[in-house]
## 1
Amino acid sequence: MTKRILLVEDNPTDEKLTVLAFKKCGVPHELHVVRDGAEALDYLRTNELPTVVLLDLHLPKIDGLEVLRILRSEARTRSLPIVILTSSREDEDIVSGYSLGANAYVRKPVEYAEFAATARNLGVFWLTMNKPPPGVAS
Amino acid sequence: MLEAHTTPRPDEVLQLEARLRLLSQITRSFLEVVREPQRLVDIVAQRLAETVGDLCSVSLLSDDATELLLRASHDPDPTALVAAREVAVERITLDRQPVLRHVLDTGEHLLIAELDLEQLRTQTTPRYHEFLRATGMHSMLIVPLRGRVSSIGVLVLMRHRSDRRPYGAHDVDLAHALADHAALAIETSHAFASEAAQRREAAKAHDALLESLEVNRQFFEECEIPIFAYAQDSHHIVAVNPAALELYGYTRAEFLTLSLRDLRRPEDHEVLEARARALGATDLRGATAYHRRKDGTIIEVEGGSHLSKFGDRPARFVTLVDVTERNAARNAQRRAEARLARLSESGILGIVVVSTQDDVLEVNNAVLELLGYTRDEMMTASFRWSSVTAPEWRSSVCDEPRELEYLGKDGRRLAVLTGAARLETGDSIRFILDLKGQKWAENAVRHLRESIASEAKFRTFLETAPDPIVIVDQSGTIALVNSRTEQVFGYDRAELVGHSVDMLVPDHVRPGHGAKVASYFAQPRVRMLGAGELTLLGRRKDGSEFPIEISLSPLETDQGMLVTSSIRDVSDRKAIDTALKHANRELESFSYSVAHDLRAPLRGMNGFANLLLDAYGDRLDEEGRDWLQEITRNAIRMAELVDALLSLSRLSRSELRPERVDLSELAETVNRELAAGEPDRAIDVRVEPGLRADLDPRLARVLVENLLGNARKYTRDRVPAEIVIGQTVSRGVPAFFVRDNGAGFDMAYAAKLFAPFQRLHAATEFAGTGIGLATVQRIVRRHGGEIWAEGAVGSGATFWFTLRPGPSGVSS
């Protein structure tokens, strides 16, 4: 079964870049994109859980940190691997992200080469190296 | 004058002023003759007859207090005076005069406003009755002469002139006041008289002694009066009696080795010698001098000397008495007298006699009137005299005349001038001058004349004031407001004046407001706008509340202390403050989102340019690929600038948590890290050990990274490159410095160094965002310090910084 990544991203450029970067990561997967916080919650409540969620922080409707808080408060998604993928490097966002239960915090580099490397590393790590919790496709 | 307070009516003022002046004059005339007892009582009778009238007789108690002795009488009408003297009874036995006894015992006056001659017929002798009838006496007032301890006599006043009204309350008051002053003067005169008598007795004794001296050796030895003799030529002591030895404290053997000079104060010697020479062979009498005892104490002696012979040599026999104590007492009395005279000139004198236990033994009406107590209240055993002094003045009370404040029975504060004299018993007699009363009388007259002008001025001042002004009295009642108050609070003047100032404060503040007003009056002081409490609220008539600042200043007026409060409506400023805070928050979130939202398109630019290069690079020529690379480089450069801006804004926002930082250690650490990134550079970095300062450790690192990083960067072309970090005095203050021997800069541009994105070198020359020194300056300034730089092109640069204002900005 193909491993699935859920990308929560509102910026179409970033979405496109991320999709392209992940295509080259070398691990077969399916990348599903939702474009705001509410859509993300809907998707996760109604579909089989993905292997990992890549969550932006600045999102329309429901903010990324709020999405995280809600997911961690629901039994089904309490242990779901969630990686914050954002432009922010504010201490406040990093601290909040971890305290709300993010599994990782990754800042999106501007330079494409770095960005591609980041995507590759994320894909390799979460799709192959990481052992997901029960209930999450592996 | 304030409109809420009644202005005294002119006639009342003039009457009061006249009364004060009269009392002052009369008291002074008493004191002028205080050493002449008979003249004093004559003048008392005369003054009373003139002012209260018509006939006044002064009778004083006999020593055994059983009789009243007529001492003086006066009447401006000579016929009436003669008639009165004809029927006058020199001695009145008090046993037969219960009315007079009552007046003496109680200290209360007796007023028979309208004499009923028919009724009196049986109560007086026919002769006296005829006198009353013939002179037409129609009104009588008997006033006690109240001394320090008890009454010392009475004044009997009678009116006979048909044009005069019966005695009224005003006459009674005036008679009492004058009688009290008279009694004080008479008592004082008695003290002087008895002292004079003692001195006369002593002089007589001396004479007798001198006569008997030559014939009676035994008397010389046994006499209790000190006597010694000295040789007329050499002034050596040749004889002394035991009384003199006791006085001077020597043994006989010692005394006989002395000369006269040894007994004198050195500074008196010349004068006394001159006096002795002038004396020749005559006797010296009634002379005084200061002598020295063996223990060095100085005594005042009074006596005389008589030239005689001791053996066969001429010698002067000196007899003397020690008058030190007596004179000390007399001097004290003189001082008290002088003080009394000084005080009495300025108005009504309050007089109170206070025991060593703080009980009031006697008090005159002036004191009672001033303080508002009855005599009974003040003289009860539980009453403490010290309680009338306002608490903060209690430690200031002393015998010397001094201005301080008393508290009236009703709590009013009263400015008084008070001083005291000690009586032999240890009790003190205290004189009290009501400063306010006196000033009030003076001022009231002046105010009446000036009131129109001054009121106009005061009103103009009030009405032109930009802020509401509310004047409040001690009870918290509004006495006066200006029209700004009406506008700001929405009340009409009439709704405010006479009501509690509480109506201008919000409901939730009212419960404690009265206490605040009271505590302000207890310790009034000028309080400036915005001082003290954070935000005060005012309440408009419609119940709405608004932020205010108030300044308070005490206002001393004829009617007591008032407080002027100037109230500033600071709604506008509060609104601006709030807007500014809001704008700051907006700006923060703006720069935050700008920083992040700018990155996404940059990432896109860079990303797609790279993708284009990767996928289609082979279809472009060299130039086309270079342009694409320009796009990617510029995107990265802009991302760096955005990150730098973000750092700078974060510096301003983060909370400072200063602690003691070892800057030397930090500089070494940072240098090692930077050196690891440039392994091929050899830089001589010297850090002075022990540099310490109080600052936020996180910012300290940013500071050191930037300054040291700069120094390393600009010494890139130097061999050897040198960097020194230390501490010294620059511009007169101790400052830290970072010095390098690098590229330096032109001092003409020194001011531009610290502005964000200002660069003195081309980006191609030295890389960087242009934010480093701006960051350093912001860190330094956030810690209250300053940063400045010195340098020259090609000769390196030195950056100085302090971390706190002033010389204490640096510690090591």
## 2
Amino acid sequence: MTNQSEAVKERLVKKKNKRSPEFRGKVIILGSAGVIIIAAIAITLFLTSKGLQTFIANGVSPIEFLTSTNWRPTDENPVYGAVPFIFGSFAVTLLAALFAAPLGIGSAIFMTEIARKWGQKFLQPVIEILVGIPSVVYGFIGLTVIVPFIRDHIGGLGFGLLAGTIVVGIMILPTVTSIAADAMRSLPQNLRDASYAIGATRWQTIYRVLIPAALPSLLTAIVLGMARAFGEALAVQMVIGNARNLPDSLVEPAATLTTIITLNMGHTTFGSVENNVLWSLGLILLVMSYIFIVIIRFLSARRKV
Amino acid sequence: MKFVLDKKQERVTKEKEKKNAILKVRNLNIYYGDNHAVHDINMDIEEKSITALIGPSGCGKSTFLRSINRMNDTIPIAKNNGEILYEGLNILEDDIEVVALRKEIGMVFQKPNPFPMSIYNNITHALKFKGIRKKKELNQIVEDSLKKAALWDEVKDRLHESALSLSGGQQQRLCIARSLALKPRILLLDEPSSALDPISNAKIEDLIMELSSEYTIIIVTHNMQQASRVADKTAFFLSGDLMEYDETSKIFTNPSNPKTEEYITGKFG
Amino acid sequence: MNSRVTDKIATSIFVLFAAIMAGTLFALLGYILYHGFAVIDLDFLTSNSSSFREGGGIKNQLFNSFYVLFITMLFTVPLGIGGGIYMAEYAKPGKVTDFIRTCIEVLASLPSIVVGMFGLLVFVAWTGWGYTILSGALALTVFNLPVIVRVCEDAIRSVPRELKEASLALGVTHWHTIKTVLLPAAFPGILTGVILSAGRVFGEAAALLFTAGLTTPNLDFTNWNPFNIHSPLNIFRPAETLSVHIWKVNTQGIIPDVREVADGASAVLVISVLIFNLLARWLGSVIHKRMSGSK
């Protein structure tokens, strides 16, 4: 009996100082997870410190930077006011969301509540493909179709916030639609059954039951679309006209944070004030993407289904 | 069916002679987070016998079964205390090489779960990991274990076809063969035939009885006829407690606990 | 108003919205392909681009796009699978896992231009490499990694728990189970996700402007020495990709046939994305069928 027990012990008790056979795997896996952490931290730290250079090393006033509407980096007395770009970014983002949200959510409801089969078989793949269309292609279409259209039928040069809004709006439309459709689809069927069972019409069911139930997820769809709009660079740059002043109307040339960075990063000397302020604009983009994350987290915490 | 009963009778007489308890469970408690799933179990399980664990759903019998080869380790919130002595060694200790333990104490699950690979590779999967690489040796083990699992004649010409092309009952016997290939000493069966049709079920039961001459078998079952047909001893669990543990014939004809009687006569469960 | 009338009106509005959306999107695809097909021919795909004369092609840009994509995937796929395995199999609920999840979320939501700026700071300036394919690929790795990690995590999580338990119950270690059971079972999902993300990487431009640059040296396609500046395989040379080219000819191009080149290049880009998409769907279903044993 004791002999047998010893034999079992020999077979089953871990040998000391023998490396666990899982060890090598764990190293590889932990390494990958480590790269993700390092990348996220490095981006945040490097871009923050580089973006603060303008204020620390070059002595530009952060208050002027955030409140002045003048952007004259090449003057004798240079002024670095980022307001026109901040305004441009927010204007494009909000207007694009105003355009894409009703269309996207409406289409999502059409796909999930009205024409399920058709939506599933036909619209879904189209939307998935369109999510993947590169943004420069949207910008190019804007340049060749939307800008001339605005010039001929609405006025101005065609380049401006309106063109930017339409391009970005169309660009984020498939994103908003596909996330909103996922949200509607994940609603439990008994919500619908319960509403129809008490004699509600389809519209009443959608309006009183389904939309309230899916609201946090639908808002998430809009916010994700806005985040994409806020960070979009090239498509906007191609159609917005790239002026440095606050525009007076939607059809006047304007600029956004991303477009000014895109345009000037290559033209300015690395390390100069004119270059450093661009990194400060980049820092605003970084901060905004953190704010979008916080908003999305807030929304997903309220998700009921 | 008569044949089956005869075979069992024959085995029961043989059974009387051996009394070596291969597993001794002492004051075992298992918790899932805050839920105290198994309370203070004590039982001895004899070598080369069939023990059935019965009881209503959620009574802790599967949880207990899974602790015997430390499958509960895969559930992060599962904790336990007490002892399970396997040949005198407490296998719940932290210094147990779980991988080695599971080769000696195999497990077959409720739903047949063959790997999405060929029949042959299903059996060699664990053998290759053990370091057996020689083609000849592998072939021999595959043949032996399929024969033991009474599947060889049905699949010998299609060993390299996907295991998923087998019927449910064949898949389950493949899963048993896969465990047998490792030459375990104990085989844990978690409702192995509840997902199968009656004919496959009968084949699995025959197989279980065959195997008990070589292996110690512990089977969780919902099916009381199954327990009474195959098991030497039966343990009745209720709400995490071991209510009664005795010879199967005693449990089913003259249980000492009134709850056991209520359960086996179908009053609840 | 009676509720049935309201219902009718509401339904028509939803139909209208969907029609507007589908119409816009179809018009867009149709426009690109229609104008593109008028330009694309073998000559367009295989001749060098010109910086001021008419009749330039997109040979180098097309090659660069695929090459940058390839190098990016070389980094992203192993790292992404590793990260996905970690999240699906090793991460225990708790602070560390929450933190890694936040990191993935941060990386996924960064605007690509910001990723490009980070690439400029670290892979171009700090390393002293200048504008190179490697810098571009590393920036795109940052951009693509969160996508692949999520794809792999989802694919591994969707492997039935029973398969994993079956392998563990046979005394196979967790790591070996991952390698031989979980990864093969998750393979169709991973492959589909990787190909779809390849389409995204292929079309990305903003992250490449400041990392891989706006120019390409004269490439000699007979030179396969990866250390020569004129070799297409050199990863330490600048490379203008197809999407960057579309942007460049439109905003700073001085060639007279901007429109033709951009039409053709856009169509090639869109067709490539379509191919990636269809390929992903097709391969995914083929492998799935083969693995689930149905003939």
